[in-house]
């Protein structure tokens, strides 16, 4: 405060942005690697075998693969060049804004009661209902694309239970506020009076869970329960997941004081939404559901800020809203900000993260690096949006200060029934016809990675996003726990991302002149996951097979050209180990991530590439395979022991097995040949190939175990073992040109 005598208040920012230390050292390192890459290219170029010489095409292939890897490496420098961090000051927010804080609408999306159990969904809902934020400013919306009355019933139960849960959370300041996560992590407190209360709430929670689960098990909802709420009348024998009218039910009306918690305080508004679904009408998956939520909420609460979450992502920090709001209401820079994205973290990651889901280095380095170029990605969940920018608005300087105190309850005096009726219309299939929804407004349609493309369009309308990774994780979700699921998810991502690259939204064209070049490049680090497949497949097949045939593809150890290969390889991996360790991974987790990197690129990325091309040619349509969030006990146990779960005879598993067996054959065969012939001179020429092939073999140890040693259900089926041995043998016999 104080000002300059004129009564003007001194400006104290509500958040800060800082460049991470070590930036110069990194840049020097990157330049040396770049020189190494150029030397490798030069070596390849100067040594291309002449027309009649052996292995000319194999050599040219190596050159192309290395050109791609080098080019991709250059692109990835964008996400390391400018790593910045954000620091919000929530104490200042409270003292400055008091009861003028903006209202927040929270969207939770679910799509299938079988693989996203309603009990999990309502734990997420309860966690966001109990934020440390004035409840009269919060409205929680559940979008149920499964259109399931079990989900509706679960939400109804949650609305009742919230009356005890919310005051309990606030009284004891507990974390996390998802009842499932909280009771799984904590035992009852020592002192007797609180212990009693604790046990009572736990019992209420468990009874509720039991009622929901038994209704699901019975496959129907009893008449007693149906009589509790008129909303059940929406479900009749004709309602199916793919075919039903819009359903909007306001379960808690936060405007009135009729619905209060056990301490007599107001509760957040709670709304159930199942948008209309018709077989002939495209529903556009999650993007469609988000757009329906944006419209329905604008009719009911119309908060200026929206938090969007997947149904498995519970709130792990009850102050997260306050921190996010700091960015939006900062007097100097807040009006430019469109969204605040939090990292997508998971609560079920094991110590050494076998499927490399944790992606700590991606969260702490790459995504903060993109933010350094004002290009933070929208990741689909754990993201706070400015309603205006996600709605389709362009940034303009004149918007300053509009955010502060929009309070819907003062403006909206319609009854609950009137609101529901008005909202239903907005959730109908026909509503979007001939509108800009899915194009210029809301989330963009037609891409399985609707989040990334939407983020890009928002930035191109002039807004600035923020990436914020707080010390205490703000949201925690469920990571896939079988290899199959992990790869299906990765395939959807790579496919969706590559599709963006090939569409009119390609950052180098669409975003040219609108966002920084560094940000355009950073987008491409992800958009180009899929094309990594082929150079990688080439690199794990050809050098190994050539080694078996005694054909050198790399310089010999005694040559000076050997050095750039050695340097680039060692420097790259050393850097990636340092990154992983500083971001909190174990060394073994880093090693596991290398295996997953190989598996993802040779399977998920390859399929993503092929499917994107066939889609582009019009042979197939966009799909969205939902990641399962439940598994059997058996599978869970193996996951906790960090044993890889193959367990299927899918094409992906066959490819993984074949590549592993092929390299084993080549490695053993190659070594035997060298030892047999005692030709050390030749060994000198093949050192790098032996090392490369040997590394692939060591990386694949868990695959060999699953092929030849294990007996559990997660092993690789013997039909696949057979196929992979035959295929690998055929490849070994293949002549090289
Ligand atoms: O038709 C659909 C399909 C999915 N969902 C919801 O979308 C969310 C994400 O689906 P999930 O199968 O869990 O995908 P993930 O791979 O975990 O999702 C990541 O990647 C998606 C894009 O591929 C983003 O939409 C997500 O926000 C992001 O978390 C879930 O809450 C689903 O209920 C719908 O609402 N409607
Ligand atoms: Mn998910």
TrEMBL record:
<keyword id="KW-0333">Golgi apparatus</keyword>
<feature type="binding site">
    <location>
        <position position="286"/>
    </location>
    <ligand>
        <name>Mn(2+)</name>
    </ligand>
</feature>
<feature type="active site">
    <location>
        <position position="451"/>
    </location>
</feature>
<feature type="transmembrane region" description="Helical">
    <location>
        <begin position="24"/>
        <end position="45"/>
    </location>
</feature>
<feature type="transmembrane region" description="Helical">
    <location>
        <begin position="651"/>
        <end position="674"/>
    </location>
</feature>
<keyword id="KW-0808">Transferase</keyword>
<dbReference type="GO" id="GO:0030244">
    <property type="term" value="P:cellulose biosynthetic process"/>
</dbReference>
<dbReference type="GO" id="GO:0000139">
    <property type="term" value="C:Golgi membrane"/>
</dbReference>
<dbReference type="Pfam" id="PF03552">
    <property type="entry name" value="Cellulose_synt"/>
</dbReference>
<feature type="transmembrane region" description="Helical">
    <location>
        <begin position="686"/>
        <end position="708"/>
    </location>
</feature>
<dbReference type="InterPro" id="IPR005150">
    <property type="entry name" value="Cellulose_synth"/>
</dbReference>
<keyword id="KW-0472">Membrane</keyword>
<feature type="active site">
    <location>
        <position position="145"/>
    </location>
</feature>
<dbReference type="GO" id="GO:0071555">
    <property type="term" value="P:cell wall organization"/>
</dbReference>
<feature type="transmembrane region" description="Helical">
    <location>
        <begin position="523"/>
        <end position="541"/>
    </location>
</feature>
<feature type="transmembrane region" description="Helical">
    <location>
        <begin position="57"/>
        <end position="75"/>
    </location>
</feature>
<dbReference type="InterPro" id="IPR029044">
    <property type="entry name" value="Nucleotide-diphossugar_trans"/>
</dbReference>
<feature type="binding site">
    <location>
        <position position="310"/>
    </location>
    <ligand>
        <name>Mn(2+)</name>
    </ligand>
</feature>
<keyword id="KW-0961">Cell wall biogenesis/degradation</keyword>
<dbReference type="GO" id="GO:0016760">
    <property type="term" value="F:cellulose synthase (UDP-forming) activity"/>
</dbReference>
<protein>
    <submittedName>
        <fullName>Cellulose synthase like E1</fullName>
    </submittedName>
</protein>
<keyword id="KW-0812">Transmembrane</keyword>
<keyword id="KW-0328">Glycosyltransferase</keyword>
<feature type="binding site">
    <location>
        <position position="145"/>
    </location>
    <ligand>
        <name>UDP-alpha-D-glucose</name>
    </ligand>
</feature>
<comment type="function">
    <text>Thought to be a Golgi-localized beta-glycan synthase that polymerize the backbones of noncellulosic polysaccharides (hemicelluloses) of plant cell wall.</text>
</comment>
<keyword id="KW-1133">Transmembrane helix</keyword>
<feature type="binding site">
    <location>
        <position position="116"/>
    </location>
    <ligand>
        <name>UDP-alpha-D-glucose</name>
    </ligand>
</feature>
């Amino acid at each position: 405060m104080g000002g300059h005598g004129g009564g003007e208040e001194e400006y104290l920012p509500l958040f800060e942005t800082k460049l991470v230390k070590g930036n110069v050292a990194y840049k020097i390192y990157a330049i040396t690697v770049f020189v190494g890459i150029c030397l490798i290219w030069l070596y390849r170029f100067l040594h291309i075998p002449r027309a009649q010489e052996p292995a000319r095409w194999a050599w040219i292939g190596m050159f192309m693969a290395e050109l791609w890897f080098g080019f991709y490496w250059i692109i990835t420098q964008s996400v390391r060049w400018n790593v910045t961090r954000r620091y919000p000051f929530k104490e200042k927010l409270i003292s400055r804004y008091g009861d003028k804080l903006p209202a927040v609408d929270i969207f939770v999306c679910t799509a299938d009661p079988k693989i996203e159990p309603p009990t999990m969904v309502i734990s997420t809902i309860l966690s966001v209902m109990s934020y440390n934020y004035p409840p009269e400013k919060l409205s929680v919306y559940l979008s149920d694309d499964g259109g399931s009355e079990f989900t509706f019933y679960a939400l109804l139960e949650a609305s009742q239970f919230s009356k005890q849960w919310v005051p309990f959370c606030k009284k004891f300041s507990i974390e996390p506020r998802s009842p499932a996560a909280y009771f799984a992590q904590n035992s009852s407190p020592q002192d007797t009076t609180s212990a009693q209360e604790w046990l009572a709430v736990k019992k209420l929670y468990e009874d509720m869970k039991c009622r929901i689960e038994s209704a699901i098990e019975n496959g129907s909802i009893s008449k007693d329960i149906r009589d509790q709420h008129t909303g059940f009348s929406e479900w009749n024998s004709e309602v199916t997941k793919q075919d039903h009218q819009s359903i909007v039910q306001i379960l808690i009306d936060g405007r009135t004081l009729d619905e209060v918690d056990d301490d007599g305080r107001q509760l957040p508004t709670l709304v159930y939404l199942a948008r209309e679904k018709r077989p002939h009408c495209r529903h556009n998956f999650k993007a469609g559901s988000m757009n329906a939520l944006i419209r329905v909420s604008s009719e009911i609460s119309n908060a200026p800020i929206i938090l969007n979450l997947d149904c498995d992502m519970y709130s792990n920090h009850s102050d997260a809203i306050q921190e996010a709001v700091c960015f939006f209401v900062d007097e100097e820079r807040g009006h430019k900000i469109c969204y605040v994205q939090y990292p997508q973290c998971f609560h079920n990651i094991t110590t050494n993260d076998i499927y490399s889901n944790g992606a700590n280095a991606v969260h702490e380095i790459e995504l903060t690096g993109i933010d350094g170029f004002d290009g933070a990605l929208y990741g689909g969940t754990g993201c706070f949006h400015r309603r205006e920018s996600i709605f389709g608005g362009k940034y303009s300087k004149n918007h300053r200060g509009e955010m502060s105190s929009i309070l819907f309850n003062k403006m909206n005096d319609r009854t609950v029934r009137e609101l529901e009726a008005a909202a239903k219309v907005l959730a109908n299939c026909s509503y979007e016809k001939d509108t800009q929804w899915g194009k210029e407004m809301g989330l963009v349609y037609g891409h399985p990675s609707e989040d990334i493309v939407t983020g890009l369009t928002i930035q191109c309308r002039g807004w600035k996003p923020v990436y914020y990774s707080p010390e205490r994780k703000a949201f925690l979700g469920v990571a896939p726990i079988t290899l199959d699921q992990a790869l299906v998810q990765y395939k959807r991502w790579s496919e969706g991302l590559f599709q963006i690259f090939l569409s009119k939204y390609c950052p180098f064209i669409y975003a040219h002149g609108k966002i920084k070049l560094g940000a355009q490049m950073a987008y491409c680090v992800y958009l180009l996951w899929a094309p990594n497949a082929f150079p990688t497949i080439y690199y794990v097949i050809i050098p190994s097979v050539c080694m078996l045939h005694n054909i050198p593809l790399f310089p010999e150890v005694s040559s000076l050209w050997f050095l750039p290969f050695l340097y680039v390889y060692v420097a790259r991996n050393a850097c990636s180990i340092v990154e992983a360790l500083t971001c909190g991974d174990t060394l073994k987790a880093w090693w596991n991530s290398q295996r997953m990197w190989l598996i993802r690129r040779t399977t998920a990325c390859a399929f993503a590439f092929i499917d994107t091309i066939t889609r582009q040619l019009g042979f197939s349509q966009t799909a969205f395979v939902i990641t399962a969030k439940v598994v059997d006990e058996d599978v869970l146990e193996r996951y906790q022991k960090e044993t890889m779960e193959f367990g299927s005879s899918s094409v992906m598993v066959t490819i993984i097995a074949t590549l592993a067996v092929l390299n084993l054959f080549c490695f053993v065969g190659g070594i035997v040949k060298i030892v047999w012939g005692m030709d050390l001179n030749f060994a000198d020429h093949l050192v790098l190939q032996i090392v490369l092939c040997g590394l692939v073999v060591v990386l694949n140890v868990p695959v060999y175990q699953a092929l030849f040693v294990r007996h559990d259900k997660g092993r690789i089926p013997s039909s696949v073992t057979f196929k992979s041995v035959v295929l690998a043998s055929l490849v070994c016999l293949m002549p090289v040109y």
